[in-house]
Amino acid sequence: MSQTKSQTDKADIGLIGLAVMGQNLVLNMADHGFSVAVYNRSADKTNDFLAGQAAQKTIQGAYSLPELVQSLKTPRKVMLMVKAGEVVDDFITQLVPLLDEGDIIIDGGNSLYTDSTRRTNALKQQGILFIGTGVSGGEEGARNGPSIMPGGNVEAWAAVKPIFQAIAAKVNDQACCDWVGKEGAGHYVKMVHNGIEYGDMQLISEAYQLMREGLGLSADECHDVFARWNTGVLDSYLIEITADILTFNDTDGAPLIDKILDSAGQKGTGKWTGISSLDMGVPLTLITESVYARCLSSLKDERGVAAEIYPRTIVANTEDKEAVLQAIHDALYASKIISYTQGYMLMKEAAKEFKWDLNYGGIALMWRGGCIIRSTFLSEIKRAFDEQPDLQNLLQDSFFEHAIKSSQANWRKAVIFGISQSIPTPALSSALAFFDGYRSATVSANMLQAQRDYFGAHTYERIDAPRGERFHTDWIKSGGNISSSSYEV
Ligand code: 6PG
Q1: pTM (2 decimals)?
Q2: Whose CA is nearest to atom 10 of ligand 1?
Q3: From the CB of 197, is ligand 1 less than 6 Å away?
Q4: Kind of pairing, strands 129-136 and 147-152?
Q5: Each residue of 91-105: pLDDT tens digit?
């Protein structure tokens, strides 16, 4: 392709899509000394941005894709910050004929990881390098330091790394951004991040309802509790914003939280995490329950009808308030450990399935700062995987063993408190149910296997025979001895 400007006049990177995340990433890049060319489908938005926040910065506008591409240094790096799905494919289709071999397309939206795998492989055939990257942290993170989780074609990484690591959040001078893995690995890890985000948010919301409705605390009192918790083991961005939310008053001086309709939205990344867990056969119960809790919340009118039929029954609480609060705290902490345990179990399975070489400690570091789930807690996960890269399960690490053991009694107490108050705690209780299943050397699946064999001749294994050897019993003495095939999903 002919080049009219000299390489030095050209921009380091191009960015398409000037919505909130796009604009803030561009400003962040410019503040770190990179020159950025920007393009947006509506030229007005580009003009407004250039005349406003981007004025006096190393940011230039482009009003067509050819103009954008021509304004970039080679190898060209074009980052898409557009709506996930077809829009990404449309832009890729338009960009490819304008690019040269070795140029790089980066997708920084919340794309489905299978799309990123498909795009990496398809673009490779055309000589274009692709990166699908998770970017977390919302508007503030994008502006001041997000967590960035890039995957795709590793040949693109050296050219993009200096920009991404410069603009990413830092924890102890380490960038919350590193290469995640090939194909859709970056977007997979971002998807699990979002699933964990769903879990953390649901857990905090359940804890809030236990305090507010179960213990009768005011919004202000709940604020004080969350603010206090934010100085201990639960110290995290989501606890911090929860405390903040609880002090925010509406125009009439009443807490705004009480005016917000209890019907949750979702854009799909939590659902994808749940679907992937079912595909992989990983018991990701807490995150999946959190997705279902949002679905249940959206049945607002129907819940109103049911509430009339089945009014809440409340058992008078005789427990000391502080003791219940401590129980809720411990339940939240233990459940959070279970949520991350399950998230890591899922990533391990995905790595096996897709032959990705994931660095689990590195992922914890990427999530340690900048992103929505950032918390002190992630330092312990990083330490655990740094100490034992082959750690089978977080619950086998001595720090988490101790944390679970010391929270366990209170965890049960908080769940029982919720049940006694008819307050739903799907995330807190499913975490406990998972834990009780996971720590049980024997579970009830022997009965399940017997039932399957009884009605469907699905066969079973015996505790007194080698694994893999299958048995069938003629339970009703029908004389039949034909067993069904033993295929497993
Ligand atoms: C992030 C967030 C972000 C996500 C929103 C909305 O990491 O910055 O995960 O990517 O899009 O939080 O998600 P829901 O609408 O599904 O709650």
Answers
A1: 0.95
A2: 136
A3: yes
A4: antiparallel
A5: 999 999 999 999 999
